[in-house]
Amino acid sequence: MKTAPLLLALFSLTARSAVFYTEGHADIGIGYEDNEIEPHFHAEEAIIDGSYVEDVEYEADEVVIGVGHSGYNHWVGLGGRPASASWAPVGVSAGTPFWCRPQRQTLSEALALPFLGVGSEELSPADWTGNLLVALTSVSGPGEFSMWQDGFFGPNFVMSTANGISGADAFNVVPGGHDHYNFGCTASGTYEVTWEVSGIHNLDGAKSASGTYTFHVAASVPEPASAGMLVAGAILIRAMRRRPNR
């Protein structure tokens, strides 16, 4: 008798608990361990489960990234999404508010939002040929997901699900580097975002690995105890999708 993937997923929940990230500086981290790329979550100076932590790493699927402030107008001005067509990748019409984790730390601190970046400080540039590529492979959630950086003439989007997911939904990461992005979501709820990180290691050759990160978007964030329930639901959904048809 074979054990169903769904039961394996249920069993895995008993072996770990999820934590909830609500404020401070943290990164989608990229490391290299045991000859493999290692996507993870790095809390640099962050509030995790209501307490301050510094320089602590978690598995990618052990953290729920929470945002409790709704609406684009909270940090950019009244009126929701700007009318310029350059904002279309957000996935809402002009004037419609949406959720955002901002690129700028000063705004993040003012609103007590997560200041989330992408960090590869653990990697030595001498070990890699060129940059690494972070490519969006799937998003499960109630709305559209996007990432962009602020530009002088408007937003510079690196990925968006508004027109589906393609090879264009990717960005480069310099080994040993660190950068920040705006993260946008168009509806409240829980999102599972999976990225594939790939690069060429000078000794080990072409390498790639995927990490799935959970974002929870709502007018208010749940209590820390609820984080485990959010991740539990996400794992169960993934397990059910993987179940073979009989």
Features:
246 residues, mainly beta, globular, disordered N terminus
Your description of this structure?
With 246 residues, the protein is mostly beta strands. It is built from three helices and 14 strands. The strands form two sheets. Strands 1, 2, 3, 4, 6, 7, 10, 11, 13 and 14 form a ten-stranded mixed beta sheet that branches. Strand 1 (19-33) and strand 2 form a beta hairpin. The two termini are 14 Å apart. Mean pLDDT is 81; it is low at 1-16, 70-77 and 237-246.
- SSE order in H/E notation? HEEEEEHEEEEEEEEEH
Helix-strand category: mainly beta
Shape: globular
Radius of gyration: 18 Å
Approximately how much beta-strand content do the residues carry?
over 45%
* Amino- and carboxy-terminal Cα gap: 14 Å
- Average pLDDT works out at 81
Query: Helix proportion of residues, in percent?
Result: 10-25%
What low-confidence regions span 5 or more consecutive residues with pLDDT below 50?
A: 1-16, 70-77, 237-246
Largest sheet: 10 strands, mixed
The number of helical segments is 3
- What is the number of strand segments? 14
Write the topology of this structure.
Elements: H1 5-14, E1 19-33, E2 36-48, E3 51-59, E4 63-67, E5 99-101, H2 105-111, E6 114-119, E7 132-140, E8 145-151, E9 154-160, E10 170-173, E11 178-180, E12 182-185, E13 189-201, E14 205-217, H3 225-242
Parallel strand pairs: 1-4, 1-6, 4-14
Antiparallel strand pairs: 1-2, 2-3, 5-12, 6-11, 7-10, 7-13, 8-9, 8-12, 13-14
Helix pairs in contact: 1-3
